[in-house]
Request: fold
Amino acid sequence: MTAALLTTLRQIVGDAHVLTEGDLSAWENDWRKRAQGKALAVVRPASTAEVAAVVKACAAAGTSIVPQGGNTGLSMGSTPDASGTQLVLSLTRMQAVRALDAANLTITVEAGCILQSLQQAAEQAGLLFPLSLAAEGSCTIGGNLGTNAGGTQVLRYGNTRELCLGLEVVTAQGEVWEGLSGLRKDNTGYDLRDLFIGSEGTLGIITAATLKLFPQPAAQLTAWAAVPSMEAAVRLLGLAHQHLGASLTGFEAMGQFALSLVVRHMPLLRVPFAGLEEAPYCVLLENSDSESETHARTRFEHLLEVALEDGCVLDAVVAESLQQAHELWHIRESIPLAQAQEGLNIKHDIALPTSRIPAFVAYTDAALQRAIAGVRLVNFGHLGDGNLHYNVQSPADGDAREFLRTQEPLVNQVVYDAVARFGGSFSAEHGVGALKAGTLEQYKSPVALGLMRAIKQALDPQGLMNPGCVLRRPG
Reply:
């Protein structure tokens, strides 16, 4: 059966695009190198028709499929298991920009289109596609949609779900749903688009999407502020909403320990207010103005004056050029890499009501420090939309690998219990994947889980679409 399936797949996509031998680690290992799978084959279709034919062949053979884009996910949602029986379906050959409708402010692209390429296509048309992530040079829009990715501009533009108007999807039976509508109003039944977005390839395979575009801002300014507490950062956010309104497109908070890792491992980067003892956090703000740079700077500087008088800001700098703004954002985006260079760590991608973040941080910091002497907390993230990357580093003199092996269950329990206590979610923008499928069962309501399983059973009755991702396999 396996030989017959591989022969059929080669007939569909060509011999060169069915990979079974050699080094397949780029497709079989997850980005964080926490999981190493073994694929039956890596298949690389070039069109939606080929995807549909591959899925039909796998359904007939009873072979499960793991869809994969740029393989940059952090929750092990695009990695095959170790059985050698799962097919990795890589969509990276499907990179085309199919259409750009400037009057309708939409762009239609294939799922394998790299996010940065999509941003550039919009920019060349004088428009903006606002989704922005640290991995934008390698992640694909299909993966962004599959996980409902967030990024740095969710505060103004929303998650990937809010940026999508229509989808093209290959179902678990190999049929094609052609839903690439550019409509902003369409009340004709259930919203299938939103069902597939965020489903991580467990219900069907997204092959193309129609996405929203926006006018380019007339000016974009960036500021870096030192704040005396997380409470002060939340207060600054309120003032920014009040004085900038919809012009506020980014609001990132970064703990001093997180910034100290950047200083240590990337000494060429100049981190403002690094190590300032009276400022345990720094905030990065972005102001996108539709009028002019003069108008933007006047409003921005007035906000900072008010914040300094209020006491929620101790000191601040405003980037004087686009290059300086890029440098400030590069510091923020370098935190995950600096943390990786420091050693293995335990990552958390959590969401909380913004008003409750200070209390959560104080409570959870204390709980972890009581549980593990010398534990180091790498706290940073998109404070403007309530999303924190609340990561945990081993004690400075400890064995990081041993810390991960022995302490991860305890750390996760402390953090996720605290998230639930303060009314939050343990997964904000990275997806559930296989890594957190068990956590979902622990913290999601039985009613919600029942509905999710019913949807999975209805759309994928054979259970072949990314099994074990999001929902654990039965039994």
